[in-house]
Amino acid sequence: MSGIFEGKTDGTPIAGIVYNTNQKSKDYSNIKNTPRPGHGDLCWMEKYGIYDYNGGGRGSGRTTISHVIGGAIAKKLLKTQGIEIISHVVQIGDIEAKYIDYENLKGNIDKNNVKCGDLEAAKLMEELILSKKEEGDSIGGIVETIAIGVPAGLGEPVFGKLDGDLAQILMSINAVKGVEIGLGFESAKSTASEINDEFHYDENNDIKTRTNNSGGILGGMSNGMPIVSRIAVKPTPSISKVQNTVDLKKGENTTIEISGRHDPCICPRVTAVAESVTAIVLADHMIRGGFIHPTNLNKSL
Amino acid sequence: MSGIFEGKTDGTPIAGIVYNTNQKSKDYSNIKNTPRPGHGDLCWMEKYGIYDYNGGGRGSGRTTISHVIGGAIAKKLLKTQGIEIISHVVQIGDIEAKYIDYENLKGNIDKNNVKCGDLEAAKLMEELILSKKEEGDSIGGIVETIAIGVPAGLGEPVFGKLDGDLAQILMSINAVKGVEIGLGFESAKSTASEINDEFHYDENNDIKTRTNNSGGILGGMSNGMPIVSRIAVKPTPSISKVQNTVDLKKGENTTIEISGRHDPCICPRVTAVAESVTAIVLADHMIRGGFIHPTNLNKSL
Amino acid sequence: MSGIFEGKTDGTPIAGIVYNTNQKSKDYSNIKNTPRPGHGDLCWMEKYGIYDYNGGGRGSGRTTISHVIGGAIAKKLLKTQGIEIISHVVQIGDIEAKYIDYENLKGNIDKNNVKCGDLEAAKLMEELILSKKEEGDSIGGIVETIAIGVPAGLGEPVFGKLDGDLAQILMSINAVKGVEIGLGFESAKSTASEINDEFHYDENNDIKTRTNNSGGILGGMSNGMPIVSRIAVKPTPSISKVQNTVDLKKGENTTIEISGRHDPCICPRVTAVAESVTAIVLADHMIRGGFIHPTNLNKSL
Amino acid sequence: MSGIFEGKTDGTPIAGIVYNTNQKSKDYSNIKNTPRPGHGDLCWMEKYGIYDYNGGGRGSGRTTISHVIGGAIAKKLLKTQGIEIISHVVQIGDIEAKYIDYENLKGNIDKNNVKCGDLEAAKLMEELILSKKEEGDSIGGIVETIAIGVPAGLGEPVFGKLDGDLAQILMSINAVKGVEIGLGFESAKSTASEINDEFHYDENNDIKTRTNNSGGILGGMSNGMPIVSRIAVKPTPSISKVQNTVDLKKGENTTIEISGRHDPCICPRVTAVAESVTAIVLADHMIRGGFIHPTNLNKSL
Fold first, then answer.
1. CA distance D231 to chain B (A)
2. Which tens digit of pLDDT belongs to each residue from A214-236?
3. Residues on chain C touching D150 (C-beta within 8 angstroms)
4. What is the pTM assigned to this prediction?
5. Which is nearest to D11 in space by CA: B8, A153, C299?
């Protein structure tokens, strides 16, 4: 609606609207007075004294469309600098994908419905998700994001660290309950001699590390290796199984069965969001770090 | 040095200086041209073209003293609202502490050197740490932070979510590689019917949940339950064991043995930092959320 | 489009769209390659390498509609605190309005086309504006804004001073070239003994000043007296008279006669913008200062 | 105290302390309960419920030392880009300096005590100031700041306009009551045909304007011409003449005679502050606009 002129950004904010064409508000009328367990409904009520229950309001994954739009623009920008980002599902429930190298990962992600690089695991994940759907339940998982081509030196210590900014935006994605960089929680069990990424000069005389346990970030700054993050996605809280909750109007305990179209697992969709918010943070730091001239963006896009 | 007048804050910035009285810069002279594996030295060099190696610069845990000072003030403020925060060690290497209820936790934390609420685990943790010290190595761990008395409604969706802000500041602590809220990565393996926190009216007719798998945060806002976070702390990268690195001056591969006083495990010290930064974020949101009048702070402190 | 639910704000951003129904883009085709003197066209070209000349882009007063919408909401909020704001024209060209007390000012502003409180001056101002229109020229003026009922203590020294924030937003209004608080430039000619506002206890034992040369702001904070600002508005740069400019395509000097509907004096319209941005800054500081609980806004609006 | 390593900035915050070696706190004891007219004392009391009266607290011009230190660094940075800034006194009371071209201005400013480029006016200004000092009174004035060599395209419309940011920081200087860019309030009396700066190609085929009534800023962005601002400085409110005020302790009207060392006119000193804050804003926008790479600053300084 604004910001684009003759196919180029013109320096004004880029605005767009996505109309929700298949929303059925009646689907949500039953949650008007009965907050859904695992959802923010009640927090909204308590914070603002009012809650727009239609479509689940801000609690709905729908809101992430704006992240994806912003991310699409950020990716165009990063591409001009040789940076590319992919997100993929590495775990659903207790099914873990095995390691797949980057090139095969890129090739496989879109060959299956769960956005997993390990095609055998993908089959099992899909079966698990469908069985949970049968039960009127949902299941969680883990999404990994890899950014390659990121120059060393992104991140502004102490209060604008790259890992801090990534953690904030990734944790802010609906349903995310955990964020890891590199080895993450695995490093809690390790010794420095096991996980320190040792430096050496490669054949081009560039300083590299053979391992990437740091996930490409040291001291809050990128070190030139791929930026690797993982997020824990909880099972979609909206399920059709009977759950205990309260009736705010009657002031008494009650139960709720949530109808409507709900994903039994949102991990495959979350990959697009994780990819997008990571792109936004990296593009922002490319600009803050002086790697790109904002005034020249429209020429490079 | 400023900001305090006649024992009260006077509205001007509170400034203080802590002089490092026992720094031995010679300890660091050997890292002038040989970046330490697992440290940000090289990132600083590549970002700024210069690096103050004395005392490890910003890469040193020393910098967190400012977080602790800020946290001390934030805690005084939160205390006036009945909010209290404790951090404790729940894991060192593969030794996990068993669950301890809040009151015993508070009592036990300072009864041992590793700030662990489970006194038997604490003994084993201490032994493990000392053995690693013997080997000239170091070990990682997990620190949990619990904030009780936090009102429902803290957090500003979409871009100032409480879990997002906590994740940012916790991930920004030196050596932290992962952040979890509530069940965290465990929720990836779970179904909604297993982990949704169901609502009910308690005896005082307050809406409560029996479980707290959400860690007190839903939709980016506090829900009135305790705020629970966990951070993965990597082993201190500075170790005396021989490691491979590069000599930036000679432009060739070399090795480094880092002398100087280095903690074989920083988790016990990180508890103070995690507690402080959590206090800062909560105090900030108490103000942003209108629960406290900044203009009245000096009367309440 | 969002943010309002059942007649109340629901905590989500309030979004709206105003479609420009009577824009005639052809009006602007002639400025495609010939930057208009007194306009930012050329700066946009040089900054962004591209310029959306339709409707004058961001250089057009049209953009201030968003300020007015935001201001309308801010005013509703301030009204709940007994704060009201009016802007009026005090000078057009060399015609100055004489002092009119607040109540008569309120009554008179809408009784004339130039939003002036002095009805006789208003007639002369209108004549002057129309004569300039005849000549295909335009004329500048001064707009004064008065906010009453503002409590003492708004403003956050050193970097969030109330006068600093007002100056920024007022100077950011298109065509504004000067901002004064209270006596403004007059104080440059004065002595302290002439203009210091002396304190005294009034009949209600409230501390008041008889004069208000400070314009209600001292040390960057409100002092409880009316907040008074004045802005210098330059003549609308778009005029139909022949002006010298350059042809960016041919790279040679040329002339321009700007057709289209252009106000010969925008001061009357600027009153709505000045009123709105002042309301936004005051509402913001009422929240920052803890005078209002954001979480309760929807109850008070 | 930090931020400088081996003579270069090292990416960490630059911190310094200036101890006030000749403060005589007794000078201020008499204002403990009697707010000084024209000062922010009472606002501080009302906002924070407490006021550090020693040295006049934040109301004292002493606080601007930090602006000057920051400005000194910003100027070093701008110098690498060929930008230079000078501030000079153009009016004291009703004595106005006549126009002096830039080169002579630079030469004359430091040849007199009032930092005025017109040496004859300077004499009269000095006499006026001294006569006011005799009377135990003070006098105001106007300070002009000129920045040359600023590239076109600095400023981020709508909310980070260059004139808006300059107005904010200039109005935030203690005792400043008005800010003008270019013609400022004079433009209120003018027509567009009189003051629009017309464009032409100069001998080097650069687009220039013969006049600079816009003060180098159009549409909130720099246009390549010198950036010219003027600020109205009120007379120092601290005077030894008897003034009416209130005794907050006794709750009754009283009078005050302010002893201590007070400048009868602070304009000459304000030149250093105006110059510094202008440098800070321009340096900030040079970085935001991508004209400078922050990561390379330490190499260029």
1. 26
2. 999 999 999 999 999 999 999 99
3. none
4. 0.93
5. A153
